[in-house]
Design a protein that fits this description.
This protein has 257 residues and is mainly β. It has two domains: 74 residues, Immunoglobulin-like (Sandwich), CATH 2.60.40; 168 residues, Glucose Permease (Domain IIA) (Distorted Sandwich). Helix content is 7%, strand content 39%. The chain contains one helix and 22 strands. The strands form five sheets. Strands 10, 13, 15, 16, 17, 19, 21 and 22 form an eight-stranded antiparallel sheet that branches. A hairpin with a 2-residue loop joins strand 11 and strand 12. The radius of gyration is 19 Å and the shape is globular.
Length: 257
């Protein structure tokens, strides 16, 4: 654990895309990271997540029960992201009205799901891979089309045959189990692990759990597919802590270990 001057201890150094575990000393009644409230468990445990494009410096504000407030500067280490440069412009252009009419309610459902929170303690567990196979896409990678950056890859992809099982990487509560395939995500499943941490599983061929259901680590929650916008069967696993997109691969051991 890395101690700070306020007595806060962190599990490691802040890095873009990382999720750190922390411990607050007695007397701490509130935390916020760059103005965003950090959930704090009764035993002083908490999480801190750093977005893929987090700036070089963050501030953790620590409030004590005697009224003292301490600001802890956090140096956030940058990462070198994989970039692919393509000479031609991206395909697609402006989305059609028909697409946007369908997409808007999908985005609203996703946003509403992320606002749901649970008392799950899955965030305390060491995470496991939700599927086994070849890692075919990594977090943070990006294509540059004729000088214009495209969206970065928001998760990790695991290639596998259609129907291969997908397991819960940690305990949690289902906050979205799509009734019909979404335009881009296909059959989408989202699980809240507590303390602002959630997982999304995209392109599933089937979903084996229901909205509001509690799931246990290692429980089958669905099957790999190629629904939505997918070039082949794979699982796309993405994670968020509050609004920060984090790298799932930093939470699990190397595949096969």
């Amino acid at each position: 654990m890395r101690p700070l001057t306020s007595g806060i201890r962190l599990s490691g150094a802040p890095v873009q895309g990382a999720l750190l575990r922390g411990t607050a000393p007695r007397g701490v009644v509130g935390l916020d990271l760059d103005g965003v409230k950090v959930p704090l468990a009764e035993d002083g445990q908490f999480l801190l997540g750093f977005n893929r494009d987090a700036p070089p410096l963050g501030v953790l504000t620590v409030s004590f029960d005697d009224g003292e407030v301490v600001s802890e500067p956090l140096s956030i280490e940058p990462r070198s992201w994989r970039r692919e440069f393509i000479a031609v412009a991206a395909r697609g252009g402006v989305p059609s009205e028909a697409f946007m009419a369908r997409r808007k309610p999908e985005l609203e459902l996703i946003a509403a799901a992320r606002l749901r929170s649970s008392d799950s303690a899955g965030w305390r567990q060491p995470f496991i891979w939700p599927a086994t196979g070849r890692v075919s896409g990594i977090f943070g990678s990006q294509r540059i089309y004729a000088g214009e950056p495209g969206s970065f890859h928001s998760g990790v992809d695991v290639a596998g045959p259609v129907g291969a099982p997908v397991m819960a990487p940690a305990d949690g509560v289902v906050i979205l189990a799509a009734q019909t395939p979404f335009s881009l995500e296909g059959n989408l499943l989202m699980i809240d692990h507590g303390m602002g941490l959630n997982s999304a599983f995209l392109h599933l061929s089937s979903i084996d759990v229901k909205d509001g259901e509690r799931v246990r680590q290692g429980q089958q929650i669905g099957r790999i597919g190629a629904t939505g916008r997918a070039t082949g069967p794979h699982l796309h696993w993405s994670m968020k802590w509050n609004e920060a997109r984090i790298d799932p691969q930093m939470l699990v051991p190397p595949m096969g270990q």
